[in-house]
Amino acid sequence: MALAVYNTMTRRKEEFRPREEGKVAMYVCGPTVYNYIHVGNARAYLVFDIIRRYLIYRGYEVRYVQNFTDVDDKIIARAREEGKTPEEIARFYEQAFLEDMRDLRVMPPDVAPRATETIPRMLEMIQGLVEKGYAYAVDGDVYFSVERFPGYGKLSGRSLEEMRAGERVEVDERKRHPLDFALWKSAKPGEPAWDSPWGKGRPGWHIECSAMSLHYLGMGFDIHGGGQDLVFPHHENEIAQSEAYTGREPFVRYWVHNGFVNIREEKMSKSLGNIILVREILKKYPADVVRMLALQTHYRSPIDFGPEALEDAKRAYERLENCLFALNSYLTRPHARTAPVRTQRETELSDSFLDYERRFREAMDDDFNTARAMGVIYELVKELNTYLQEQERFPTPAGPVIAGMGRDLLLKLCQVLGLFLPAEEVEEAVFETGRGVESRDVAGLPSPEQLIDLLLEVRALVRRKKDYETADLIRSRLKEMGVRVDDLREGQRWKYVGKP
Ligand SMILES: [Zn+2]
After folding, report:
1. 112 near 63, Cβ under 8 Å?
2. How far is the CA of 469 from the centre of ligand 1 (A)?
3. How many A from CA of 209 to the centre of ligand 1?
4. Å from CA of 237 to ligand 1 middle
5. What residues make up the domain containing 316?
6. Domain check: are 318 and 396 in the same one?
7. Alpha-helix residue ranges (DSSP H) falling in 21-118
8. Residue 4 bridge partners (DSSP)
9. Is 326 domain-assigned?
10. How far is the CA of 121 from the centre of ligand 1 (A)?
11. For residue 463, is it within any domain?
12. Contacts of 185 (CB under 8 A, 6+ apart)
């Protein structure tokens, strides 16, 4: 079975055939770093993290590039408000974004170029476009001439006339067509500026992504991702610039766009005042619950991030967590070492495991249908819970083997989607951006999970010594930090439940 991907360009699912066999080159539009990221923006990074992880599971070698837009009107405005330089604002929110992505357990990009460090590439492109007659300079600004590019509108599926009617475009006498967009903007006093053949200025937003994606991935790369709101004008403009400049097409093989985020059926927006920041949500819910919410809806559909939806996702997550916990505690119990002869039921069950993985793949191969894939996982959970109950009443010699296979499969499928990742996979991303230097891990530092386990080991020790005061202190301090500790027959169990 082949992988099918919905391509915004052709408006249908297509068989996925990458430019180079076994390799996928993908580019996702990164954040404009002037504020903390909210869940509306974060959905894209979760969606493309899930897609990237699935492609890796499918055996592809994936190269993932995601930029930082670190020069922009919004950054300049923010800097003025706070009495800082635009660079200080950009670096601060870039760091905050990296922390939020790490906390969401999103894999860091292979390359994370900054716009300000790719300016020579952009100037090269702009100059090329002017020379070929696709762009013109007026008073230090350079505009792309949309009428010169016959394919303009092919991604959004609208003609120039329709777009002109649909968009409220400011009348600018200096532009040849109202939809002509800026490749280069002349500097106003006090703004960050770079030298160019047209005087001091800074790049427009659209040219950044064309220059960075072409530089790091080359023409005709495989997947370009982003939110649906980027289709027009951002991605339409990226195509026009890149194909006009190189004289080749396509710029991108598959255009993939994720749907909007709503809060209680209202679109999340600043004007409605219903913005939820990633860091706020992560104070209340573990990253896996936020991810579960994203997984339960197809990436192209709108998603509700309201409190009820989050509570539902939390309950669904606990079903998986409880099953894994029950399997693990069953497996760590001492079992009689006998030849693991399987019963008829056990042979059938272990055979069905292959079927679960096949159905999981089928669902994900169908344009990354995570909702259907989660359905397969829930069925597996139900099956494994039933089997464990049977084992409690009528243990069989092969019980541990079958339970072990079931646990490994459940964990494997969850981890393909980025759930229940081992602690060591949560890595600190360190970027040396713009120079093509890859991110790397900070090896050796213990994870929070390891430190909690260590605390609980100490707590078990002091309890054995009947020092209940210290044991209670450890438990209540952990509780203050949002970690609930339960004393069960098989030992202590902890869980991150969020701050009280
Ligand atoms: Zn972009």
Report:
1. no
2. 56
3. 5
4. 10
5. 307-421
6. yes
7. 39-57, 73-82, 86-103
8. 15, 366
9. yes
10. 15
11. yes
12. 141, 201, 202, 203, 204
Residue 470 domain-assigned (yes or no): yes
**Tokens 């913005």 -> residue:** 275
Least confident of 22-36, 289-303, 384-398, 460-474: 460-474
Q: How far apart are the first and last CA of the chain?
A: 48
Total domains, the chain:
2
**What are 81's two structure tokens?**
């408000």
Residue 297 CA to ligand 1 centre (angstroms): 24
- Of 500, 26, 20, 14, give the one whose Cα is nearest residue 284: 500
Same domain, 374 and 461: no
CATH number assigned to the domain comprising residue 344: 1.20.120.640
Q: What is the mean pLDDT of residues 24-35?
A: 97
- Give, in order, the Cα–Cα distances in Å from 117 to each of 121, 141, 203: 9, 20, 12
Residue 187 resides in a domain: no
| CA 234–ligand 1 middle distance (angstroms) | 6
Q: DSSP secondary structure string, 395-438?
A: --TTHHHHHHHHHHHHHHHHHHTT-S--GGG----B--TTTTPP
Do 311 and 411 share a structural domain? yes
Helices (H) and strands (E) in the chain, counts: 15, 15
Residues β-bridged to residue 342? none
What Rg do the C-alpha atoms of the chain give, in angstroms?
26
pTM to 2 decimal places: 0.85
The distance of Cα 248 from the centroid of its chain, to the nearest Å, equals 30
Half-sphere exposure of 45 (CA within 13 A, CB side): 25
Residue 417 sits in the same domain as residue 452: no
Measured in angstroms, how far is the CA atom of residue 253 from the centroid of ligand 1? 16
Peptide bond into 307 cis (omega under 30): no
Judge whether residue 429 has pLDDT over 60. Answer: no
pLDDT band at 476 (very low <50, low <70, confident <90, very high): confident
Per-residue pLDDT tens for 261-310?
Answer: 988 878 877 777 788 999 999 999 999 999 999 999 999 999 999 899 99
